[in-house]
Amino acid sequence: MVNRAEFTLGQLAEALSATLEGDAGRVVRGVAPLESAGPDDVSFLTDGRYRAAAQTSRAGAFVAGAGVTGLPAPVLRVAAPQQAMIDLLLLFHPAPPLVAGVHPTAIVAADARIDATAAVGPLVVIEAGARIGARARVGALAYVGAGVEIGEECVLGPHVTLLTGTRFGRRVLVHPGAVIGADGFGFAFDGAQHRKIPQTGGVVVEDDVEIGANCAIDRATFGNTIVRRGTKIDNLVQLGHNVEVGEHSILVAQVGVSGSSRLGRGVVLAGQVGVADHVRVGDGALVGAQAGVAGDLDAGGRYLGTPARPSLEAKRIFAAESRLPELLRRVRALERAVEALGGGPLGPKAARDE
Amino acid sequence: MVNRAEFTLGQLAEALSATLEGDAGRVVRGVAPLESAGPDDVSFLTDGRYRAAAQTSRAGAFVAGAGVTGLPAPVLRVAAPQQAMIDLLLLFHPAPPLVAGVHPTAIVAADARIDATAAVGPLVVIEAGARIGARARVGALAYVGAGVEIGEECVLGPHVTLLTGTRFGRRVLVHPGAVIGADGFGFAFDGAQHRKIPQTGGVVVEDDVEIGANCAIDRATFGNTIVRRGTKIDNLVQLGHNVEVGEHSILVAQVGVSGSSRLGRGVVLAGQVGVADHVRVGDGALVGAQAGVAGDLDAGGRYLGTPARPSLEAKRIFAAESRLPELLRRVRALERAVEALGGGPLGPKAARDE
Amino acid sequence: MVNRAEFTLGQLAEALSATLEGDAGRVVRGVAPLESAGPDDVSFLTDGRYRAAAQTSRAGAFVAGAGVTGLPAPVLRVAAPQQAMIDLLLLFHPAPPLVAGVHPTAIVAADARIDATAAVGPLVVIEAGARIGARARVGALAYVGAGVEIGEECVLGPHVTLLTGTRFGRRVLVHPGAVIGADGFGFAFDGAQHRKIPQTGGVVVEDDVEIGANCAIDRATFGNTIVRRGTKIDNLVQLGHNVEVGEHSILVAQVGVSGSSRLGRGVVLAGQVGVADHVRVGDGALVGAQAGVAGDLDAGGRYLGTPARPSLEAKRIFAAESRLPELLRRVRALERAVEALGGGPLGPKAARDE
Question: A297, A341, B185, C38 — which has fewest CB within 10 A?
Fold first, then answer.
C-alpha cells in the first residue's frame, strides 16, 4: 500500500496532545513497529517491556508513556500510548474518502431509501423498503434484503448479505461474506420428517459492533437475535437464533453460540469456543479457547475446557491428567503392597465387584 | 417485518383442524410466544410445562394439546401442538410470492434451461447447460455452474455458489454464502511438493435438504458426495469429498465431516462435532457438541467427548476428572500410610521404576 | 459430467512413461476407482493393498507399481502409481479452456492492469490499481480490491474477495467465498469501549498455494500475513493477522490460527485444530484433529489433544481416562483396606485436610 501522508513531529504532538521531546520540524512518513521502523517512521512503545527493543530501533521518533526514558530518537510523550498509537494510525491511514452516491450498476428498489451522503458500490442489490443511513458505505456485490435498515456510517464489505428482518444501529462494520439474518435452525419431527419451523423474527445489531468475515448470525424464531453495542465479533463466528450478546463483548474467530443463549456485558469468548443453547454467561466472564460451555457461567468468572470449568480447577485437572498413566501404576503398586500386608483382594476386578 | 394477515379463530380452527373452545369470530393478527403475545396474537403451548406461563400471557387465543385446560383465553385444541404451531406460522408468514422470470441483469448461458415458472434474481450467473426446475428461486448474486441441476421448488439464497457436478433434488433450501461442489482436499506429495489430485466427481443433494449459511460441501474425487433426503444442515458446516449423510439427519453449526465418512439415517451431530475420514456413524447415532469422532459409532448410540465415547462412560469420566487433583492427594496419602505400615517403597519414582 | 476424452493404452503408456503389459490398441474413455470402473475405464492401484480389490474389478486396464502382478487386464506399469494417477486424471479431465478477455459485465477500474491472456468472468469487480497476471482466471462475481496483485495462472473461484493489501504469487487457487485481506481482529479498550486498531498491513500468498471455500485470511496489523509456497488450505480455515504459514504445509478444514503465530515448513494441522496467538510450530510438526495448541511445538513432533501434548503421551492419557471411574473405586477400596490394617484415616476428607 502506498501511503503519501507526512507529518512533522510538531504536528503529531498537537494531534496526539503529546509533549514533544525533540525536533518539532522533523518529518515522518509512516508508522511501524519497533523492529521494522526506519528513520522516516514513527514507532511506539505501548508498554515499558519494549524498552530494550526500542534501543535498537531505527525509528525516527517514538510515542511512549511517562516512564520510558533514554530512547534513541525524539519522543512524543503521551498518557495512554496504545490509544495514541491508534490515533497515529488513523492519521497516517485515514478511511478512504467517501464518494457519495449509488453506482450505476447497483440494483436498487424504487422504494429503498438511501441517504444522499451514502455510498453504494457496484453490483450491489438493495431490495424494497430498505434504508441506508447517512455516510454509510455498502461494498461491491453486497446484498441488502427487503426492509433492512442500516444506520449512519455503517460499512458493509463486499459480498455481505443482510436479509429481511435485520436492523443495524450506527457505525456497524461488517466484513466480507458475513450473512446476517438467515433462518435460525429449527425443526420439529412429525414422525416422518423434520418440518421447518418458520423463522419470523429479526436481527438487531446495535451501534459500533464489528462482525468478521464469513460470520453467520441467524434471525430469531420470534423477536430478535441481538448483538449489543460495542461488541466485536471475529471471522467465521456462528450466532444461532435468539442469541443475545451483551455490550462490549469479544467473540474470537470460529466461536459458536447456540440458540437462545445469552451472553452478558463484557464477555470474552476465545477462539473456537462453543456455547450450548439456552445458556447464560454472566457479565465479564472470560472463556478460554475451544472451551465447551454447557451450563450457565458466573459473572466475572474465568473458564476453560470441555465441559467448561473454572480456570483454576481446569488447569489443575489438565496437570493431573498428565500424571494419569503414572497414577495407574502407583495404584497398582499400592494394591500389591497392601495385599502383601494382608489387605485385599484389590485391583480392577475387585473394584468392579464392589 | 410488517405482517398484514388476519384470521378469525373460526378460520384458524378450520385451517388447523382444531376444535375451537371460544369465540369463532374473534380476530387475531399474529403469532407470538406466551411472554410477548398481546391480545391480537394467537400463542401456543407446545408442551404442558408452559401452563404456568400461559396463565399470565396476554395472548388473544392459544393453540394447545388435549391435556391443557383452564387457559385465560379461547383455545384451539389440536392433537399435535408443535405441528399446529408450524401450520399457524405458515398461515401468518407465507412464503413471499414467486415472481416467475429471469431478472434482466442476470447472466444466463444460452443453453441453460430455466423453467418458465422459476424466479432468477438480479445479478445471478447461470452457466452453460445448467437446469433450474419449476418454481425454483435463485437469489440475487448467486452462481450456478455449468451443468448444475436443481429441481422443483429449490431455493438458493443470495451469494450461493453451486459448482459443476452439483445436482439437487426438489425443495432443497440453501442459505446465503454456501458453497457446494468446490474441489475436495486431496494431494499427493511427490517428494518436492503436494500435487493436487484432480477432483472429478460431483455432489448429490436429495429432496427436502436444508443447507446453512456459509457451509462448504465438496465434490467427490470420484463418484459423488451425497446428502440424502430430509437432512438439515446448519451454518458453517464442512462436508469433505465423498462424504455421505443419510436421510433425515441433523448437522448442527460448525460441524466438520472428513473425506469418505458415512453417516447413517437420522444421525444427529451437535455443534462443532468433528468426524475423521473413512468413519461410519450408525443410523440414529447422537453425538454431543464438540465431540471428536475418530472411529465407527454404533447405530442408536449416544456419544460425547474427544475421542467420542458412549455418553454414559464419557459423563463418568468428566465427573471423575473433577476429582483427579483430589485423587492424586489421596494416593500420596495412601502411599505414606502403606509405607508406615511396612509396605513400599511407593510413590512416583517407584512407579516409574516398575 | 460428460467427458469425451479417449485414449489407447499405447497413448497412455507414452503420456505416463509407463511400460505397457497388454494390447496397445485398446481404447479407454475414463478413469475410475477399482470398485466402480467398467471395461471402458482405466483404474489404478496406488498401493499393493488393493490387489484383492483389483482381482474383481471390471476395469479395462490398470495403472500399477512394480510389485503388483497377476491383474485381470492390461497393466500400465509405473514407478509412482499415485503420481501416475494424477497424470491420468489430468489427461481425462483437463482444465477447461481459458477464454481470455474481460466479460462485458465486469466492472474494471480504468487503471487496473489485466493481462491480455487473463480471463475475467461476469459481474466481477476489479478496483483501481489492481494487477491480474497472465493466464489468470477470475471467477464470476469475484471482488478484487484496489492495488491487489495476482500472478500468472492464479485462479479465483466465484464470490472470492481479495481486499487491498493482498498480493499473490503464481498459480494460487482460491475456492469460492474465501475472503483474503479483511481487517485483523485488534482492539484496545479505552476504559469505555474497544477501539479498533487500524489494520494497515497486507497478505502475501506465495506460489502454488490453494485456499479453500469460505476461508478467512486477515491482513496484518503491520507488515504481512504470509502463506508460503506450496501450502494447501482446506475450507473454512481462519488465519489471523500476522500469521505466517511455512512452505508445503497442510491445514485441514476449520482450522484456526490466531494472530502472529508462525507455523514452520511442512506442518500438518488436522481438522478443527486451534492454535493460540504468538505460538511457534516447528517444521514438520503434525497436530491431530481438534487439538488445541497453546504453546510452541517442536519440529517433527506429533501432537494430540487440548492442550496439545506429544501423541504418545496424549494417547496414554486418553486410555487412562477410560479407567478413571474404576480408578476412583480402586482407591476407595485401598483406603478401606489400609484403614483396616491400622493406617489412616484416609479418603477425600483426609486428602483435603492435608
Answer: C38
